[in-house]
Amino acid sequence: MNSGELFPEFLLLLLSTEGNECIKANAESCGDCIQVGAKCGWCTDTKFLKQGEPTSARCDDMESLRKRGCVAAKIENPRGSQKTLRNKPVTNRKKGGEKLKPEDITQIQPQKLSLSLRSGEPQTIDLKFKRAEDYPIDLYYLMDLSYSMKDDLENVKNLGTSLMLEMSKITSDFRIGFGSFVEKTVMPYISTTPAKLLNPCTGDQNCTSPFSYKNVLKLTSNGQRFNTLVGQQQISGNLDSPEGGFDAIMQVAVCGEHIGWRNVTRLLVFSTDAGFHFAGDGKLGGIVLPNDGKCHLENDMYTMSHHYDYPSIAHLVQKLSDNNIQTIFAVTEEFQPVYKELKNLIPKSAVGTLSANSSNVINLIIDAYNSLSSEVILENSKLPEGVTITYQSHCKNGVVSVGEDGRKCSNISIGDEVYFSINITALGCPKQGKTETLKIRPLGFTEEVEIRLSFICDCECQKEGIVRKDLCHNGNGTFECGACRCNKGRIGRECECRKDEVSSEDLDRNCRKDNGTDLCSNNGECVCGKCECKKRDNPEEYYSGKYCECDNFNCDRSNNKLCGGHGRCECRVCICDANYTGSACDCSLDTSTCLASNNQICNGRGLCECGTCRCTDPKFQGPTCEICPTCPGVCTEHKACVQCRAFGTGEKKDTCEQDCNYFTLVKVKDRDKLPQPVQAFPLMHCKERDANDCWFYYTYAVNNYTEVHVVETLECPAGPDIIPIVAGVVAGIVLIGLALLLIWKLLMIIHDRREFAKFEKEKMNAKWDTGENPIYKSAVTTVVNPKYEGK
Fold this sequence. Notes:
The chain has 791 residues and is α+β, with helices and mostly antiparallel strands. It has 17 helices and 42 strands. It is 22% helix and 25% strand. Helix 6 runs antiparallel to helix 8 and helix 9 packs parallel to helix 11. The N and C termini lie far apart (132 Å). It is found in: Cell membrane; Cell projection, Invadopodium membrane; Cell projection, Lamellipodium; Cell projection, Ruffle membrane. GO terms for molecular function: C-X3-C chemokine binding; collagen binding involved in cell-matrix adhesion; fibronectin binding; integrin binding; laminin binding; metal ion binding; protein kinase binding.
């Protein structure tokens, strides 16, 4: 077999086994093996390894281990598991029903699980989320009190009771708070002249001193108190257009005790008609220290605005998310594009258009709350090293999403249930410890799912390891999981060598066959004087033998199959199955396929070789040497069937389908298109006549199957054609008449020419007298007119 025939199968085999991670890992212990991937197992059978195979050959995929003779009971292949530790059902209560504390309301289930992770094996957990009815809400109104918001303050003064009334339609447990901000109290944000520090406004306007952020009212359920305290607030002023709102948002997020946040839905309404300063802008005022993200409220005033820079957007996102705060930006039309871009960076936030005097603020808050609460987005805490997570959401109306969209569901109404399938996969064991904690929670909610992760890093059989002098070379290793696990600095299947003596010349001599030059036949490495054969990418292929001189994949092939598919390859020699022989096991000893219809082998005219007849009589052919296409009478024998198949006539036209379906018919246009005899197979040319005296031509040949080529038109004798005969007679008569006329005309011409010549001759011979006659008088008389003058 040539290399061209071998290559396609070799390439296919290589592609199918490419990247066998279990083999490539060269795992020296069971623990190392199971961390390679979920398909890898470790054979603990002490007699499993063949001569020349290294210890790492015990690690292979499950199917290959079984094929190599390792029974299931001897294979270490631990699997991951999961256990639910707390599974409190989601709350099903109606508004006005039983009064529950916020911590007693459950919207996500289960709440706590433990997962045991095997490397490469995903564990799937299913979460259910149900939006509870009458869920408590805390709302903090943070307002810009720069001078441009003067008319807005008048409308906000009555916000408390009005908003309480509207929110009572959503929840019976609602609290509201109020805070205000202006700007950092340093140049160039405000004027630092003493007069401007007392009253930053111009003219006779009475304004309060500038400040960065002030917590006016802690969260309360007393709407009237909100109205009273807000009514006492005064407008302030600053120099530049952007405001210091980010300082205020940071303090509201991190000063939970001062604000009074509960573990319920937390809403922050940020109201302004200007842009914002962010990290780096503080340098204009000589402030270079980055914002530390900590609470700095004293007497409800932010006291470190002159010390720390504005927070960055990413810093705000982190703190808002950590504290489960959902932000509503109530801004004027002019700054809508800016805050919409900011909304895209802050999860669980919304933007509403604030009228010029904030008269629509209640409707804005209600609409934004409905938009935020109708969407649930899951987020997880920082993943441990080597752990991945994927989400799949099952939302309303059968909508299924994966990837980043798999984290969220939209258009959720109160009482709706949605589900999430979460796959958690470990890609190895963490360096620090074997347990980690992962938390998953819906953004904007305080509830979370706690998942304790433990990692399967060792096999059970490793716990049974023993130190045995007779197995691991005087105790230089621990016998565990069917093999020696060598101590540090030792090597070899039985830990018999030190690492510094692995490649000495004396030991290498034991790895050369017949004192040759090749170590381990170039198919392995000499370790401690013993050959450890190389491993192949295909787990079913391996080298073996004391010198790695044998393999099970370099035997002869037939039909692109090793040993013809009828034997096994041992040390590069095919061991054939019963009834097969040959170097590639491609010769069958079964003679049943050679029996002819007379029960003779090859019809007595050939030899049965490898299940196929070889005809010794050149006249005969076919699978059993029964066909003789060139024998006398072949044409006559098949005439009737060819006639009925090709022309629908003849003796067998009524039984043609039953009697004449034993050959393949091919029609050709003329006799030149009929195939010609070749040496490869005999072919008979036939010419037969039908009942109408018409001839038809065909060839009969047998080459694996019977094939007949026939000329598609009959060759019939033609009758006399009257018209040509009559036309020929008429034409003949006309031609004869013309010929006679031409002859007559020619004779007449000859005769006339002779007579004319005779006349000319006589004329030449005649003599005439040319003298004048004396008695001749002219008949002409001339008369002259005397009067004629010549005019």
